[in-house]
Write a structure and sequence with these properties.
836 residues; alpha/beta; 8-stranded mixed sheet; globular
Length: 836
Amino acid sequence: MIGIVIVSHSKQLALGVRELAAQMVQGQVSIAVAAGIEDPENPLGTDPIQVYEAIASVFSDDGVLVLMDLGSALLSAEMAIEFLPEAQQQKVYLCEAPLVEGAIAAVVAAAAGSDIHQVMAEARGALLAKATQLGVVSSPLSVVTPTTTNVESPTPEIRLIVSNRLGLHARPAAQFVATAARFQSQILVQNLTRNTELVRGDSINQVTTLGVRQGHELVITATGSDADEALAALQALFANNFGEDNVALNSPPAFHHEVTPATHGELLGIAASSGVAIAPIIHYQPTHIAITEYHVDDPEAEWQRVQAAIHTARQEIQAVFSQASIQIGDAEAAIFDAQLLFLEDPVLLEAAKERILENHLNAEAAWQAVVNEVATSYHTLEDSYLQERADDVVDIGQRVLRLLAGNAPANLHLQEPSILVATDLTPSDTAGLDPTKVLGICTTSGSATSHSAIIARTLGIPAVLGVDAQVLHLADGTLMALDGESGRAWVEPESHILDLLEAKREAWQTAQLEALATAHQPAITRDGRQVSVFANIGSISDVQVAVASGAEGVGLLRTEFLFLDRTSAPTEEEQLEVYQAIAQVLDNRPLIIRTLDVGGDKPLPYVRVGLREANPFLGWRGIRFCLDHPELFKTQLRAIFRASVGHQIKIMLPMIATVTEVRATKVILGEVQAELNQAGIAFDAAMKVGIMVEVPSAVAIADQLAAEVDFFSIGTNDLSQYVMASDRTNPRVANLVDALHPAVLRMVQQTVQAAHAAGISVGLCGELAADILATPILLGLGLDELSVNPQSIAGVKQAIARLSIVESEAIVASALQQDSAVHVRELISTSVTPPT
């Protein structure tokens, strides 16, 4: 079971919190205390060794949650983790939840058998219940939709009057949740007296938020195989008054304790992206778009304005998505893919249209009202991850609103490298930052799991979020230092702080330079196997970055950037110029050009689509689209063939699902070659042709496909989605899309075995290739090459050099027998020999 550690400056405080929390679960959860220091005159303080010993005493493979009060408690906890073995470090989680409320919520969730992430979520949400009861916030939790049941079999329910003098306060609420969690059935609770929404019975925060007082009437429903038993057990709790005698309770004595202040000029925030930055600040304030609501005489024209703005916004986002795929990787760039889906949401569009046509409302006001409604619906959800998706809704909403208002895009022009200070940054804002100019980010809102934070980490920009709003009043040019690893920032830092941070920054920069130096060397395992490390790119500028980063070639040139964001298809000459320029920069290194991969979810504005697809991910895309547009396809193939003279260029076909598609493409390739021969135009007649393996059918017939082509490249991003039947942009199922799931790994293994049996090479160009945790798996599976985003090359090469094929194959053998991606990750973290 999960262990809990309470770290506080005050030993008395920590012991009191432990006693209170332990009462909630009758001692079922291991709770350790690390508090105070051995100094009779000044006992307030924290000791890293004491924290380390506390963690060790309750350590469990299920995880350890560490709750802290203030200041040095966080530093001591961070330092204590460093003393632990690396495998254990990854199972210890520092949580910023309030100490008292967070500890109670955490132990109740742990006792109920929740996993470490659910326990953390409960701890973090612990103040919601108090805030709701005090009227600070209203209805912060989501409406729960009961599971659909057969009309002839109504959902079992009971109605109860609460007799406890203080209602469902902490202890009875904890008993209720612990009881509900014992059963498989879904248990929902509603406070009929207060007319609340249904909430989950296994969540301490949601149950407490109901604000149940003596005399309130509750309705409890249960859906599942053991529903009757669950309701009977809960009814018994109420019948015996939760073990309370209902006598008047004495008010607890007032409690006061000293708060340890931050050091001079120090701001405490959320550690969102590691690294150190020291630079003058510059404020970023996005242009405010003032909206005036007014009556329009021609609502049809207003609706046309909205459609035009959405069309332009879609083109802008596609351009951002294309660039972000290279700069931050496919997984993070999917943020903008999801924004495209938002613009196509029929419910949202119909709501905006209705406001305009029926109420004669102007386009700006109608659009803003609809966006506000959607954002609010996200904000009121229980799940913090889903709450943060409101940022993406606001981001795309503001983009359309800016276009409706006729405003130019906000551009941040920095005269010198600076730390960006803002209230918040949208994903679009963050993706457009130049890491050479923006050395750090400091905002007054945001969280470490927001999309903006994820992008900042990928860009390598240190970020501290959620600091005090006083930072917004600082003058531009004020010197700031921030440490994104500890979540602290200093305004006009004192010399000793600067010295410490400079040393930390220099150590990091030295490590980066060492990694860059090794990046230009071949990637060779400890037992002598060389693995090619290529780059995924999407433009001429990208290839220059790739070569400078140590790429041994290009394993994936996405050609979509040539076709998107324009009103007509690129000509053969336009394409030829780009392909030649990229090949020239590569200087005879391999260049694999993927043919056009659009259609379905990525339509071309100048190609007639016809019927709207209900499920574009399973629709008309990739090679299917190209085979249906042979002239468009042949123009691209002619340009590639013409560029091949004197260069190592290969053609790669996307989304291959059948042998028929490969053979149909070969016919077109033959036609193009014949036309070029007839015209006397030179090309590489021996140019190799390969396919992307990203559809499960391609894996199933990999032996047949291997007989038709010269190489395979596995696209784990799409393959993972198709294997797990889960859309990675859908928060409800995105957690299933993990390329380290044994089901996906077995597909990769099958593909590699079929390729090598046929004597052809096989590479991998999905996001998995850039995950150094996965490197031993990929080596053990026998991949010949890995193709990653340029910024990942150095790290991947270093990871390869630390491993041997023998140990990697042993890890794979065990990984393929695991039952989840979580267990595969745990296996890797405990199996890999740490570098010496």
